[in-house]
Design a protein that fits this description.
By secondary structure, the protein is an alpha/beta fold. 52% of the residues lie in helices and 11% in strands. The protein has 3 domains: 63 residues, no CATH class; 326 residues, Aldolase class I (TIM Barrel, Alpha-Beta Barrel); 42 residues, no CATH class. The protein has an 8-stranded parallel β-barrel with strand order 4-5-6-7-8-9-10-11, surrounded by 7 helices. A two-stranded antiparallel sheet has the order 1-2. Helix 7 runs parallel beside helix 9. About 1% of the residues have low confidence.
Length: 467
């Protein structure tokens, strides 16, 4: 039972709140080992909003008290744009289920090699089907960092805050943009100090010039950039990402990047003269989100255009002062390819489906639960089964959709199962982090990133929640 009384009992003797709303951790060891997971469960599963939201606020404040502070990666990326650091690629990890356990595994892997350049993120689409609003996601990731004593800057990111092309061009575009603005405000308040704006869906490739093709992409990206700046917490400089090519589409080009930056800067200067722009640019180089499943359930091999990735990363840095290019859809690539990303100066890669697959296909994942999840998919998502699609293809393409409806059952898996999955995730993260050359990146992160607490006062927090 996650109610007000159980919340008080959970933090008693470990976390204190004075009349001014100042949070003090009196026993950091007990917080990590006995309290933080229970606090995370209150933050996610409490039925009463006031208990849930107070728990989320407590996690952020307790994190700040023990050295876990939500931060923007912008100073690190700006330094990279100036040529003051390089040689590694930052992994941005999308967590769709078992968020607390997956983040714990990543924190352990990072600590082992003294790495801090790791981003935790959730996309607009993932928020919907995993049923994780930004405040919940931030609470789970922060709780995981506290549990593993992962101190310092904690980078939490809104990934693919994406404009729906159908809503924009064929529906109510103002309603669509209002929804994105509201999501940005929600994420910023929750401690997401890194926001990736994805208006690449608005690119129209059959227009006669590249500038015309990118026009709506530039204009909407500039509009949403200004909105991010307007609603950023006091004292926080937000890292903002842009995108020139929709993942799974045509490979990006140098001409497209230059056209995008011309149009983007023009519109941003009209809306908010002198405002800071994007710190990185997402490009398309041949990958597809989640990979392409074949009829037998295996994933089709793809050819990543590393030459394009190198060329765009160097151009982004030298001409526009950005950290470089961002690669999406990378988690299902062969492990041996990960070492190529730092070689070609990729600033950031986004990883999601590979970790989802490890969880679903883990030998200790309960077969009965998997069967229940698949039965749900067969009924609730039958309209997504295309002609000629095998069962393996159908379930592979849709099984992410089961995470929201089965969230509580995933959290309630036996500890032995969660620990076994976590151990294998940690080994996977360790291998990827090593190939991305994250070893000893904590020093360079802490050299440039000086996180400032942005958690609002409790009264302000509750007022915002009620509003």
């Amino acid at each position: 039972m996650f109610d007000q009384q159980s919340l008080r009992s959970t933090i008693q003797g470990v976390v204190q709140i004075d009349r001014g709303g100042v949070v003090t951790v009196t026993d950091a060891q007990r917080l990590r080992t006995n309290v933080i997971e229970a606090l995370a469960r209150h933050a996610i599963f409490a039925e009463k909003p006031e208990v849930r939201d107070a728990s989320r606020w407590l996690i952020r404040k307790a994190g700040e008290a023990v050295g876990v502070t939500s931060a923007s990666i912008l100073p690190l990326y700006a330094a990279r744009g100036r040529g003051e650091c390089s040689g590694f690629t930052v992994p941005a990890i999308n967590i769709r289920t078992l968020t607390y356990d997956v983040a714990r595994a990543a924190c352990r892997a990072a600590k082992r090699i003294d790495a801090a350049a790791v981003v935790f993120e959730v996309a607009r689409s993932e928020i919907r089907y995993t049923e994780q609003r930004p405040p919940e996601y931030a609470a789970a990731v922060t709780a995981a960092a506290i549990r593993e004593d992962f101190r310092g800057p904690l980078f939490i990111q809104g990934d693919h805050f994406q404009v729906s092309a159908s809503a924009f061009y064929k529906g109510d575009r103002e309603k669509e943009l209002a929804a994105l603005r509201a999501l940005i405000e929600e994420a910023l308040t929750a401690g997401f100090l890194n926001i990736d704006i994805d208006s690449s869906t608005l690119v129209v490739l059959d227009r006669p010039t590249i500038d015309a093709q990118q026009e709506e992409n530039c204009r909407i990206a500039a509009d949403l950039t200004a909105h991010v700046h307007k609603h950023a917490p006091a004292g926080a400089a937000i890292s903002i990402g842009g995108e020139i090519g929709e993942v799974g589409g045509k490979n990006s080009t140098v001409e497209e990047l230059r056209a995008y930056m011309r149009g983007y800067r023009k519109h941003l200067d009209e809306i908010a003269p002198g405002a800071g722009g994007i710190s990185k640019i997402s490009v398309q180089t041949g990958t597809t989100h989640g990979g392409v499943p074949l009829p037998d359930g295996t994933i089709a091999k793809v050819a990543v255009d590393f030459d394009t990735l190198r060329e765009l990363s160097i151009l982004a840095r030298k001409e526009f002062g950005m950290a470089g290019a961002v690669q999406h859809g990378a988690s299902t690539l062969p492990e041996e390819l990960f070492g190529k990303f730092p070689e070609v100066e990729t600033a950031e890669i986004h990883l999601a489906t590979g970790f989802q697959n490890l969880i679903y296909d883990h030998p200790q994942f309960p077969s009965a639960l998997r069967a229940d999840m698949y039965a749900h998919l067969a009924k609730a998502h039958a309209d997504e089964r295309k002609a000629g699609m095998s069962d393996q293809q159908f379930y592979y393409k849709t099984r992410k959709q089961a995470f929201g409806p089965f969230k509580r059952k995933m959290w309630d898996l036996p500890t032995s199962v969660r620990d076994a999955i976590g151990a294998d995730l940690e080994r996977t993260f360790s291998d990827i982090f090593a190939r991305l050359r994250l070893q000893e990146t904590r020093a360079v992160v802490e050299r440039f990133v000086k996180p400032t607490p942005t958690t609002p006062r409790l009264t302000e927090h509750l007022a915002a929640v009620l509003a």
